[in-house]
TrEMBL record:
Protein name from the UniProt record: RyR/IP3R Homology associated domain-containing protein
PANTHER family reported for this sequence: INOSITOL 1,4,5-TRISPHOSPHATE RECEPTOR (PTHR45816:SF3), MIR DOMAIN-CONTAINING PROTEIN (PTHR45816)
Superkingdom as given in the UniProt entry: Eukaryota
Pfam family, one: RIH_assoc
Organism of provenance: Gulo gulo (Wolverine)
Region of interest (Disordered), ranges: 348-369
Length: 369
């Protein structure tokens, strides 16, 4: 009879593997070693191993290692948000059109000129960012045109020739400061797996001199990666793309695991946070996410499915209606019904394809349900 994964995890934990993970996270300054430490932690916790969960909790709580440990993870989250804000590139075709409309309005509306001075200055300040973003958009547009019409390749060749190496590098990798967030969030999710109430609460409050609320910080990260800090909730498709959608999904899954069980304190923490986290989650469900949805609807459906599960987790098994009322305040029932109808109709269309090609991923009907 072979040894199970759980047995191996417990054996490694008994030999000090979980303690090693904590020490690496707390002490290393090397990004590669830090990443490997997080991955080892994930391997020890995979499948919801309660013994290794308890071992992590015992060492962090009883051996007073938690303040430095949580500070490191908190700082990583803050660094990722800072990196996103400074490097995010979005599809600026619509922004460019809006700028031209605004410029025309400025030219034809003399009396309103003074009112719009501040926005004009803002646009000037954004000129460098827009130039960089438009370059990325140009490359993406050529790639799309090439898919639709292979003969267009010649027209785009000149534009892309000088940027070929840069483009391939961008497609393969994202900034290390942002990429590390996916394993960090997976690690935090697994700490809370199977409704581990002690660790769910511990992520929010460590009762140390300095407390690091990683529940709120995860919500802030979702807020940032979806672009809501720019005020563009209706423009999710400009920020969510094939390169970062897996990270957005992981963020939603981690937030869901923080709440399930339910953990009422974490539910309240997410629902009442000063960021517009609830708005983001609702927007992910209700809004089209294009252009991603035009060629990878499977990824969009998975995103909507995870966002729906998170909303349910925030409302799960409560004796009051506060969180449900907050959600309904931001979401008109008619909009939700329309999304369900669209998902159902897409499901009917997909059923024909499933008969031929099998069933992979999340179906539209699952999302509607």
């Amino acid at each position: 009879m072979g040894i199970s994964m759980s047995d191996i995890q417990c054996l490694l934990d008994k030999e000090g593997a979980s303690e090693l993970v904590i020490d690496v996270i707390v002490n290393t300054k090397n990004d590669r070693i830090f990443s490997e430490g997080i991955l080892l932690g994930i391997a020890l916790l995979e499948g919801g191993n309660t013994q290794t969960q308890y071992s992590f909790y015992q060492q962090l709580h009883e051996q007073k290692k938690s303040e430095k440990f949580f500070k490191v993870l908190y700082d990583r989250m803050k660094a990722a948000q800072k990196e996103i804000r400074s490097t995010v590139t979005v599809n600026t075709i619509d922004l460019g059109n809006k700028k031209r409309d605004d410029d025309n309005e400025l030219m034809t509306s003399g009396p309103r000129m003074r009112v719009r001075d501040s926005s004009l200055l803002l646009k000037e300040g954004m000129k460098g960012q827009l130039t960089e973003a438009s370059s990325a958009t140009s490359k993406a547009y050529c790639a799309y045109r090439r898919e639709m019409d292979p003969e267009i390749d010649i027209m785009c060749a000149g534009t892309e020739a000088g940027n070929a190496e840069e483009k391939s590098a961008e497609e393969v990798t994202m900034s290390p400061a942002i990429a590390i967030m996916q394993p960090i969030l997976r690690f935090l999710q697994l700490l809370c797996e199977n409704h581990n109430r002690e660790l769910q609460n511990f992520l929010r409050n460590q009762n140390n001199k300095t407390n690091y609320n990683l529940v709120c910080e995860t919500l802030q990260f979702l807020d940032c990666i979806c672009g809501s800090t720019t005020g563009g909730l209706g423009l999710l498709g400009l920020y969510i793309n094939e390169k970062n959608v897996v990270l957005v999904n992981q963020t939603l899954e981690s937030l869901t695991e923080y709440c399930q069980g339910p953990c009422h304190e974490n539910q309240t923490c997410i629902a009442t946070h000063e960021s517009n986290g609830i708005d983001i989650i609702i927007a992910l469900i209700l809004n089209d996410i294009n252009p991603l949805g035009k060629y990878r609807m499977d990824l969009v459906l998975q995103l909507k499915n995870n966002a729906s599960k998170l909303l349910l987790a925030i409302m799960e098994s409560r004796h009051d209606s506060e969180n449900a009322e907050r959600i309904l305040f931001n979401m008109r029932p008619r909009e939700l019904v329309d999304v369900m109808k669209n998902a159902y109709n897409q499901g009917l269309e997909c059923d024909h394809g499933e008969d031929e090609g099998g069933d992979d991923g999340v179906s539209p009907k699952d999302v509607g349900h």
